[in-house]
Design brief:
The chain is built from six helices and six strands. By secondary structure, it is of the alpha+beta class. It has one domain. The chain has a two-stranded antiparallel sheet with strand order 1-2. A two-stranded antiparallel ribbon has the order 3-4. It has a two-stranded antiparallel sheet with strand order 5-6. A hairpin with a 2-residue loop joins strand 3 and strand 4. It is globular, with a radius of gyration of 16 Å. The relative contact order is 0.13. The protein binds zinc ion. Zinc ion binds next to helix 6. The site of zinc ion has 9 residues, from helix 6.
Length: about 200
């Protein structure tokens, strides 16, 4: 199981950050909690790119991947399937984070749950509202209104970036697939799409 989690964590990471993943490595996987938690070593970029704020996203994205994997693999040797009505469950379970109904595919369930938990730990500011959370052109769009601190935006933007590396059907590592209807899919689901 640990080998699979290691490989999947690195696939999410490089699929999201590309060259900005340079030097990041996994130092261990904690299996003591409800789900396996990936621990990262994130060296400082030797030449940080100021324009894309690579340094803070290396921390935001790796934290989200670690949380997402812990939820997806919670309680067993196998990963869990996302609930089919994920968008309803997320709105029900995290009403202060997802104040409006979501329009998101089931495969992003663990990613969005991970983001919601990270935001709840910081505390949701009074008056903060989500206007829309949806898939557009293969990746997540998460719009908020009201006061939104930088730390919350970091989680939201990290989720938007990570979504392009998470299969929207099953939550496995994937990539954005061009075509008439652009979607983010793992290899298995991309094959099924081609055959149809
Ligand atoms: Zn898939």
């Amino acid at each position: 199981m640990e080998d699979v989690i290691h490989a999947q964590a690195m696939a999410y990471l490089t699929g999201t950050l590309g060259d900005n993943a340079a030097g990041i490595r996994i130092t261990g996987i904690d299996t003591g909690g409800p789900g396996p938690r990936v621990r990262w070593e994130i060296p400082r970029l030797s030449r940080p790119r100021v324009s894309d704020r690579g340094e803070i996203y290396r921390h935001g994205v790796t934290d989200l991947i670690s949380r997402m994997i812990a939820l997806r693999w919670a309680g067993g040797q196998e990963h869990r399937e996302p609930p089919p009505e994920s968008y309803l469950d997320l709105h029900r379970d995290y009403p202060t984070v997802f104040t409006d109904t979501l329009e998101t595919p089931a495969g992003w369930h663990w990613m969005l749950e991970a983001a919601a938990e990270a935001i709840l730990e910081q505390g949701v500011p009074e008056g903060s509202r989500t206007c829309q959370v949806k898939q557009k052109l293969g990746t997540l769009r998460w719009y908020v209104r009201g006061s939104t601190p930088e730390s919350m935006l970091l989680v939201i933007n990290s989720a938007e970036w990570l979504s392009g590396a998470v299969c929207e059907h099953c939550g496995a590592p994937g990539s954005v697939r061009p075509g008439g209807w652009i979607r983010t899919l793992c290899d298995d689901h991309a094959d099924q799409k081609r055959r149809r």
